[in-house]
User: What shape does this take?
Amino acid sequence: MFNKENLGNLMQQAQKIQKNMKNIQKEIKSIEVTGESGAGLIKITLNGNNNCKKIEIDSNLFKEEDKEIIEDLIVAAFNNAIMKISEEKKKRISKLSHGMPLPKDINLNI
Assistant: This one.
């Protein structure tokens, strides 16, 4: 049963979580991860907003007949970086919600 004290505590917890969530969102925006493919021949660096910051292509790949392979490696590296951002978000959110059950499908806008 909820009484005024329980409701007040719940509201304080919700406000604390909201503040922590804003801090995590700021942290996530500032992180950068690098995804790679082809054993490091292609590297793509993204920030926490999924914006591409840098692409590195090993000079050994520059042969005209390899164009399609290079393009496929770039896509794989990009997707690898996106996956790393997603994993980092999940880690930070799980730290925030420790001990408090959150619905699995909750959208926290990060």
User: Anything to note?
Assistant: The longest strand covers residues 32-37. The chain has a mean pLDDT of 83. The CA atoms of residues 25 and 43 lie 25 Å apart. The two ends are 33 Å apart (CA to CA).
